[in-house]
Design a protein that fits this description.
The protein is of the alpha+beta class. The protein is built from twelve helices and nine strands.
Length: 379
């Protein structure tokens, strides 16, 4: 793990420069072509970004949660597509293996994920199952030394480029206790992909359906070698992932603040820069204040996470506040830019579309509210 303060500062500064010098200039290309250049992905591999949260013993950087969110603040400063391509390897694609996998599963998959040779994906959502994750309908039926999977997963991040899927499937009765988790390689017989989804924003990220039609996987694909643990695994995985997303939201909000300040200084109306008009200043001040509040929440929750405390409520609060906050900051950024902010030539235009998804995936804002209230009432 990176515990040395100077080493961590070097990592964060390296990522910061990489984002500003390599990724930000590529944003227009991503928007136009809806794909990330392979050369940039190779650079992210060489920097170890595919293995930030994977333990050192498996070839990763082994970052603590606090260290990870400091890097995520920087990654959030540019188009979400760049973070997304490495995000599943560091979050929902690898954490199930790290937390609950067998040693054999860890030894086989984690080094490959850390090197970026393999991209992991997390398949939970279904056509009729989203927020109600305990109602998964995809089935996994034991057949000798194999399991046979049937069902469809929907809106699965990185599915078109994934090499292995963490799949939640029902092995038992109704409810969360009947769900198990499986590691299903992309080349498994009976696994097919649907067309790539056309989305409102986050161009460069790829999602699609993952379809299982009598898909056979060996019994060793069962995460942890135990049935009925899948829902618990999913909830533990989402806890870390939600905090990471909250940090990305903060990074994006900071980018929007910086774009707004730069434009307000240069745009002249009524004989002076609009930055000198108090109503513009009020919007800038609100955005800066909310960004600072979000950053403080994320850092505090990350420190509590690392200390082993129960942070379910704090993580849900951070995800709720930061994902809603960045939407407000994006709206103000467009307003400050005026008509220019509505044009695709302006980066605030694509961020306005991009950030809308943060309030939906890895648990909608309404789900976070329910989690927070439940934790309060059960205290």
């Amino acid at each position: 793990m990176i515990r040395d303060g100077d080493l961590l500062a070097t990592l964060v500064e390296t990522v910061r420069r990489f984002v500003r010098e390599r990724l930000v200039p590529a944003e227009a290309k991503i928007e136009a072509e809806d794909t990330i250049p392979g050369a940039l992905i190779d650079e992210m591999r060489s920097m170890g970004l595919f293995g930030m949260s994977i333990p050192e013993r498996y070839g990763g950087l082994g970052l603590t949660m606090e260290e990870e969110v400091l890097v995520a603040f920087e990654l959030g400063y540019t188009s979400p597509a760049f973070r997304s391509v490495i995000g599943t390897n560091n979050g929902i694609g690898s954490q199930g293996i790290i937390l609950d996998g067998t040693e054999a599963q860890k030894d086989y998959w984690l080094p490959r994920m850390a090197r970026g040779e393999v991209i992991g994906s997390f398949a939970l959502t279904e056509p009729d199952v989203g927020s109600d994750a305990a109602s998964v309908r995809t089935t996994a039926v034991r057949d000798g030394d194999f399991y046979v999977l049937n069902g469809t997963k929907r809106f699965i991040t990185n599915a078109p480029v994934a090499d292995v899927f963490t799949v939640m499937a029902r092995t038992g009765g109704e409810g969360p206790s009947g769900i198990s988790a499986f590691l299903v390689p992309r080349n498994s017989p009976g696994l097919t992909l649907g067309p790539v989804d056309a989305k409102m924003g986050q161009r460069g990220t790829r999602t699609c359906d993952v379809i299982f039609d009598n898909c056979r996987v060996p019994k060793e694909a069962l995460i942890g070698g135990r049935e009925s643990q899948g829902f618990k695994t999913a909830m533990k995985v989402l806890n870390r992932g939600r905090l990471h997303i909250a940090a990305v939201c903060v990074g994006t909000a900071q980018r929007l603040c910086d774009e707004s300040v730069a434009y307000a200084r240069s745009r002249v109306q009524f004989g002076k820069p609009i930055a000198e008009h108090q109503l513009i200043q009020a919007m800038l001040a609100d955005s800066a204040t909310e960004t600072f509040a979000g950053r403080s929440m994320v850092l505090e929750a990350a420190r509590m996470y690392d200390s082993g405390e129960n942070v379910i409520q704090q993580v849900a609060s951070a995800k709720l506040f930061c994902s809603e906050m960045v939407g407000r900051v994006a709206d103000r950024a467009v307003q400050i830019h005026g008509g220019a902010g509505y044009m695709q030539a302006s980066p605030v235009e694509h961020f306005y579309r991009d950030v809308r998804l943060f309030r939906i995936y890895e648990g909608t804002s309404q789900i976070q509210q329910l989690i927070i209230a439940r934790q309060m009432l059960n205290a």
